[in-house]
Amino acid sequence: IKKIAVFTSGGDAPGMNACIRAVVRTGIYLGYEVAGIKQGYQGMIDDNIENMSRHSVSNIMQLGGTVLKTARCLAFKNPDGMQKAYENLKKRGIDALVAIGGDGTFTGAERFSSTYDIPVICVPGTIDNDLYGSDFTLGFDTATNTVIEAIDKIRDTAESHDRLFFIEVMGRDAGCIALRAGIASGAEAIMLPEKDTAISELIDLLEHGAANKKSSSIVIVAEGDKNGGAFGVAKLVKEKFDFYDTKVTILGHLQRGGSPSSFDRILGSRMGYAAVKALINGDNRKMVGLRGNEIVLTDLKEALTDHEFKLEDDLMEMSIILA
Ligand code: F6P
User: Fold this and answer.
1) 11 Cα: distance to centroid of ligand 1 (angstroms)
2) Which residues belong to any copy of the Phosphofructokinase domain (predicted)?
């Protein structure tokens, strides 16, 4: 290996910049050239690539988003797009990759690396925390903190007006953000894609709260919930239970932004450093992950296999007992 290129792809996540910085600085420290590819796979196809120096990643640690920009690129899914990307890398002497993103990014990396025999190490960067092989993904901690802060604010107004709020949070098909943010904000109920909570059960819970003089209530709805998100759940509840004045808030993309938490800054740094070390050690088509407090590598094929996605049993049970 002579020259490593790093890129971010898919949805941005706080902590990606810490990871980019770690890849660049570790690579240069160990005597390799490092390049940054802009806009993920799209930049590979468009030859939107820059050589990086230690200095080019100064003062980015604290920034949300990704300084390399990101995109969801369809052109890379076809052989012509991949071929063009390969030619651009070759022209620039790039012979190894670090890809930061989610499962779409990993699928592209797996295919590209096995077609063109270019080593790649992936880093899990997504607020959803839905990847096999790592207890935490980059951005999840910051996004959850952002959600908690938003719910606390909504709680103030909900309580002042005696209202019931349905708050929808991101996470795609996973309920990780919803579950943790729900517990940490003391939500009265959490609707998760991983658990089929009947609307009648939710109504019982809210009725019980009202009977016990709860003047406001907050229901967190994961965007992957099967009842049609927060609007869907609110509609179904309102048909049978209209004790409270009801409001719906979709938190949306504010959950993706903001300065990364210390956890995400350190995780990003650790994972970027580990990704470069793995490439140098001859590892290929692997994902860096955190298990317990250890950095581990998982084969990309294994990471991409359909594993049953599970939320922590104790958190699930606790979320009901403590609500
Ligand atoms: O994967 C991260 C995520 O923010 C999901 O939680 C959400 O479903 C999706 O991306 C939104 O994607 P986009 O920003 O392309 O609308």
Assistant:
1) 6
2) 3-279
**Is 312 annotated as belonging to a binding site?**
no
Q: Which of 47, 80, 117, 128 is catalytic?
A: 128
pLDDT tens, position by position, 108-145: 999 999 999 899 999 999 999 999 999 999 999 999 99
Q: Among 219, 144, 206, which residue's Cα sits nearest to residue 174?
A: 144
- Is 25 assigned a ligand-binding role in the annotation? yes
Rg from Cα positions in the chain: 22
Greatest C-alpha distance within the chain:
71
Position 95: which residue type? D
pLDDT band at 309 (very low <50, low <70, confident <90, very high): confident
Instruction: Give backbone dihedrals phi and psi of 215, rounded to 5 degrees, phi first.
Output: -85, -15
Between CA 60 and CA 259 the distance in angstroms is 10
* Rounded Cα distance, 8 and 284, in Å: 18
Establish whether residue 128 lines the binding site of ligand 1, counting it when its CB lies within 6 angstroms of any ligand atom.
yes
Could you give the ipTM of this predicted complex?
A: 0.98
Tokens of 68: 């390399």
Distance CA 189, CA 202 (A): 7
The question of whether 204 is a catalytic residue gets the answer no
